[in-house]
Amino acid sequence: MADAAGQAILPHFRAPGLSADNKDAGGFDPVTVADRAAEAAMREILAVRRPQDAILGEEYGTQAGQSGLTWVLDPIDGTRGFLSGTPTWGVLIALSDETGPRMGLIDQPYTGERFRGGLGTARWQGPQGAAALQVRATDALEQAILFTTFPEIGSAAEQAAFRRVAGQVKLVRYGMDCYAYALLAAGQIDLVIEAGLQAYDIQAPIAVIEAAGGLVTDWQGGPVHDGGNALAAATPALHAAALALLGQAG
Q: Where do the annotations place Mg(2+) binding (predicted)?
């Protein structure tokens, strides 16, 4: 499925004249022909190989199933980055049951990197070879590297909560979309904090990060596989420290 999605996407990446439709009348939520073609390609494979499973996809919605399993698809997570020519977007695929994601894949076709976690696997493959995924052992906020996609994260209250954490860490970076979660699983960064996510944005990252030894919850410490505000952390101590700051009254 990831191979098929990549083959559908790459002819459009950095192509002259690539345009996007806007799905949000009040802002800018782009979708391109590449998004739609990639999800259609993945659904075609599932129709043949896993017709009994349900599907939840960003572009084509929900398809019911009978197996109790659901494939959760985001054909291009980071379409704004895709339109801008940055290689920080990715194909997200998760396999979930009623408890949440069991397996996830973060795939970056342009760089040739694939981050896979769940069902006994925590693995990275790329141009330099392959390696196990393992979060790093950062426990102190002052030593942590924090990523989020938008500097203007969420509401005013959510922005204030984010700034409380950002003010305590060593380094803050922006604009990485799903690639930030992949870097956390690979032991390159320590925290990702985001607001306003959908299930298809977060389920694959949850599976990959948890398989690599990290934690992903909402901002209250509960499950986030249905979407919402996400906190991903490399270690329990780091997660607890960030969670305490996110929960403080403004």
A: 58, 74, 76-77, 201
Annotated binding site for Mg(2+): 58, 74, 76-77, 201
Query: Residues 3-58: pLDDT tens digits?
Result: 999 999 999 999 998 888 887 666 777 899 999 999 999 999 999 999 999 999 99
Residue 81: burial class (beta carbons within 10 Å; 0-12, 13-18, 19+): buried
Give residue limits of the domains in the chain: 2-132, 141-246
215-217 and 100-108: which strand pairing? unpaired
> Domain 141-246 maps to which CATH number in 3.40.50.150, 3.40.50.720, 3.30.70.100, 3.40.190.80?
3.40.190.80
Q: pTM to 2 decimals?
A: 0.95
